[in-house]
Write a structure and sequence with these properties.
Blueprint: E1 15-19, H1 43-58, E2 62-66, E3 82-85, E4 88-91, H2 97-100, H3 103-112, E5 116-117, E6 132-134, E7 141-146, H4 154-162, E8 165-170, E9 183-185, E10 191-193, H5 200-209, E11 215-217, H6 220-224, E12 231-233, E13 236-239, H7 244-252, E14 256-259, H8 263-266, E15 277-278
Parallel strand pairs: 1-2, 4-5, 7-8, 10-11, 13-14
Antiparallel strand pairs: 1-15, 3-4, 6-7, 9-10, 12-13
The chain binds arginine.
Residues 30-31, 34, 74, 77, 79-80, 99, 130, 178, 180-181, 268-270, 274 line the site of arginine (ARG).
Amino acid sequence: MAETMSPTIERTVPRILMCAPTFFEVDYVINPWMDGHVHDTSSERSGRQWDALKDTVSRHADVVVQTPVQGLPDMTFCANAGLVFGNTFVPSRFRHAQRRGEEAPDRAWFAHHGFDIVDLPDGMLFEGAGDALFDRGVARRLWLGHGHRSDVAAGPALARLLDVEVLPLTLVDPRYYHLDTCFCPLPDGYTLYFPDAFDAASLDRIEQHVAPALRIAVDAHDAASFACNAVSTGRVVILNRASGDLRARLEAAGFMVIEVALDEFMKAGGAAKCLTLRLDELTNG
Ligand code: ARG
């Protein structure tokens, strides 16, 4: 199904990549969620939960499926493949050796699907759309999480390579090791986030750039349910779980909240957003 994505074509339906969890399991520990869960996942359950997510996302986006690779149990978290911007793909360079095997098949997939591959300078660590999230209110504004996985130096490098504004955010809680575990830009500039995951300077930065009425701060309980790890397409927000209070606030802001249980993936430290990668970044809201 080779196909070239053009940044100049306005699409009405977002395009989202997913990678089946055929080889998913917790095989090693590279974040606190994985601790205690090595070889504790059920492929039947993860398969069922992933299918439910794919069916739900498919109702609001075109889902494109990437073939998983045996021996790469975290490849199903395709948000970490790299960063898409228009027709450009910036491949990830993983901090942990356990995930580095994903780099070659991801690069090959994006090259095969017509993306221009643009590399960060040698040796720079960057975990793609797990840590780099485009603002949905201001064009060409990229939020970059660092402190656990991606290097802070990826910020100026991405700004130069993609001609975008990069706003770095320092992550301080090891449970919220990727930006997409604790921060989610939504349409019109609404921003879902867990304040305690950031240092004071980063919270200031969020508050400087996101107006009070657009800030949807979540509490520790919603954060731990991966509520910020949400797939956003148009006014739809797909997430593992939201409290009644969070759901009410999102609905008051005009969003429709859809829950898909993803606890099997949370054992590896990921949920809805990590299991997806937006392929038409820049062409849709
Ligand atoms: N076990 C994976 C890791 O620690 C989970 C990745 C989740 N991905 C994400 N975009 N937050 O790398």
